[in-house]
Amino acid sequence: MLPDVLKQSLASSQRVSKRVKILACAGIILTHAIGAAAIGLSPIPFSDAALLVPLQTEMFASLAAIWGLYVWRYPKVVLFYASFQTLTAMGGLGLANLLKLIPGFGTWAGMAIDAAVASCLTAALGVGYSAAFNAVATKWPQLGNLQSDQIMEVMRPYTQPEYIASLVTKFREGYSGGGIQRSSIEGLLTDVLNEKKIK
Predict the structure, then answer these.
(1) Rounded distance between C-alpha atoms, residue 18 and residue 155, angstroms
(2) Is residue 170 a part of any domain in this protein?
(3) Structural domain harbouring 176
(4) Which residue from 71, 148, 149, 174 has the fewest beta carbons nearer than 10 Å?
(5) What predicted TM-score, i.e. pTM, was given to this entire model?
């Protein structure tokens, strides 16, 4: 079994193999979802959004590289999606952070909820981003001199709040006691990249 770093390099060089890309993306998403859960376990209220955004931005860039798109060349795209992640994190984690303000049980409950929501939200964003980068690479296989607005226009349907919410729902339904599994990420990525309807 190849380490995720080697899978990422292999996937980037083998544009024709969507299955290799799915496996590489799943590894990146799972790693970042676990990191997001760890951030959610922080007992300090409202500290998680500030830590989640850099984690999710790094995931965004890593996933883009799988599809041959090096987003650091497009600062407008990175800034736009970092802002999007900030709003998503603040909205998704609000209740859990309010619970953390209550000493004792509230803090513990808030930490548990926060970890689950942060993990699930990060995984959903990862799948949405993967679908978006696949769409960009499909539309412009050579990924030549693209403009930021062209990239964002193609990515837009896969990063709408409603679409991300539908992916979060899919992950919640797929939860087994241990949280998000690599197999559930791979399965959802396969469905999304093969354009099966996500309800």
Answers:
(1) 18
(2) yes
(3) 4-193
(4) 149
(5) 0.79
